[in-house]
């Protein structure tokens, strides 16, 4: 059996005495593409931040890339993390940001140029990151998060607010990246998008359903779409 890249059990996190993630268990091996799906405020971002080593779980156990999740030793350099906030340097141009990112990861200088071509960023090469439109900024963020070919890629609502063409391109790159043998976790509240993912966990108020396929969830609800299945669950 393949060695897990992530194997965590019973993760929980509270802020100000309110539990926002409760008893979440995730196991990922190379090639997995898992969607964390559900309404705003359900705990998806907090889960991703715990996997990224940015938030320490209050309880739970297990490892992320071999490091104990509660010991604060997760090697963040081996993780690609795309947050909902625009996390690159606004005053640097696109190529400068990618060069900087490449340098941090010890990549050859050619890596940034390769990424420009791969993700169709030539038109904005010399533009300051802070002046990009939302769609271009997301593309650049995605390029930065995969530049170092991390074995674990965590994407928080990567397609939120994007037009249909950019969204389709981004999903294409996400699927392609998962196919290279890394594990990818992607959060989304867009159920039509989630329906295309091979595996999902449905979040509601900090609790996540067992991992399943969209088809199984639709079938179990006797519904015709993931959206209808989730609505049926919410009204049950
Ligand atoms: N650092 C924090 N301090 C206090 N509360 C927080 C903190 N981080 C998250 N929360 C709260 O935890 C809850 C879960 O938030 P989280 O961002 O994990 O959900 P989400 O499913 O990703 O939602 P969204 O889709 O809106 O990003 C929310 O009510 C949020 O306000």
Automatic annotation (TrEMBL):
Keyword ATP-binding part of the UniProt annotation: yes
Signal peptide: none
All residue ranges annotated as the ABC transporter domain in the record: 6-230
GO MF, one annotated term: ATP hydrolysis activity
InterPro entries: AAA+_ATPase, ABC_transporter-like_ATP-bd, ABC_transporter-like_CS, P-loop_NTPase
PROSITE patterns in UniProt: ABC_TRANSPORTER_1 (PS00211), ABC_TRANSPORTER_2 (PS50893)
Record keywords, A-Z: ATP-binding, Nucleotide-binding
Protein name per Swiss-Prot or TrEMBL: ABC transporter ATP-binding protein
